[in-house]
């Protein structure tokens, strides 16, 4: 274990993740293996009426704090627990409200659960929503290649009470640029039935290769 390259979704520096050796994997939910790009995209930046959105189970200590400060507190902040699925609807249709909220939001809150990672990071990129990552000690995937600060917002866990002010402090021009970058990097987080150049499959392999070369040089 000391010498191998570990590929981990739980890329937590406090849980032994080693920079330059281990690889951070993006956690993804594939709703349709036959058509993994189903529902990709979202509304243009000018038509996103929701400032920030989150919905999810109360895993871990952080999400209850998020809901304590923001659930039903502000009309611009659509912060929920787990969104109920309508009766008699299939899995795909049951996700419709959640997906439409992401497609209509400027910022999508990616709060850690039991571990530092969350599938919402990739979901936000998939639906062209700027991810807001609230997870201290999280190492984002492909950080050796991608400039995450150009398309994501990182908020310290202790700053949750000030979340709206932090988002409003980002100028419209800056937001538009970040949202454009989300669309630009989106190709690197997509699965295909057969791998496509620069997609998530190739990016994961590249991260492993990159760290293997780095380790070889270090020795």
TrEMBL record:
Residue ranges occupied by any Exostosin GT47 domain in the UniProt entry: 7-168
User: Where is it located?
Assistant: Golgi apparatus membrane
InterPro entries attached here? Exostosin, Exostosin_GT47
Q: Which residues form a coiled coil?
A: none
For molecular function, the Gene Ontology terms on record are:
glycosyltransferase activity
Major localization class: Golgi
What keywords appear on the UniProt entry?
Glycosyltransferase, Golgi apparatus, Signal-anchor, Transferase, Transmembrane
Tell me where the transmembrane regions lie: none
Membrane topology type: Single-pass type II membrane protein
| Keyword Cytoplasm attached | no
What are the record's GO terms for cellular component?
Golgi membrane
Q: What family is it from?
A: Belongs to the glycosyltransferase 47 family.
Q: What is this protein called?
A: Exostosin GT47 domain-containing protein
Source species, please? Citrus sinensis
Print the organism lineage. Eukaryota, Viridiplantae, Streptophyta, Embryophyta, Tracheophyta
């Amino acid at each position: 274990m000391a010498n191998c390259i570990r590929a981990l979704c739980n890329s937590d520096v406090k849980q032994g993740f080693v920079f330059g050796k281990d690889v951070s994997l993006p956690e993804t939910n594939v709703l349709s293996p036959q058509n993994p790009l189903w529902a990709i995209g979202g509304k243009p930046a000018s038509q996103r009426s929701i400032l920030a959105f989150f919905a999810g189970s109360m895993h871990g200590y952080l999400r209850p704090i998020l809901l304590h400060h923001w659930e039903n507190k502000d009309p611009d902040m659509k912060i929920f627990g787990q969104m109920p699925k309508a009766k008699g609807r299939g899995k795909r249709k049951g996700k419709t409200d959640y997906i439409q909220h992401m497609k209509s939001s400027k910022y999508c809150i990616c709060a850690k659960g039991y571990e530092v990672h969350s599938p919402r990071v990739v979901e936000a990129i998939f639906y062209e929503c700027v991810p807001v990552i609230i997870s201290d000690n999280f190492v984002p995937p492909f950080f050796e290649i991608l400039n995450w600060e150009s398309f994501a917002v990182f908020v310290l866990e202790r700053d949750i009470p000030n979340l709206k002010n932090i988002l409003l402090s980002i100028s419209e021009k800056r937001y538009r640029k970040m949202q454009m970058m989300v669309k630009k990097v989106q190709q690197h987080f997509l699965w295909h039935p057969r791998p496509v150049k620069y997609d998530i499959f190739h990016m994961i392999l590249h991260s492993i290769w990159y760290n293997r070369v780095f380790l070889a040089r270090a020795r």
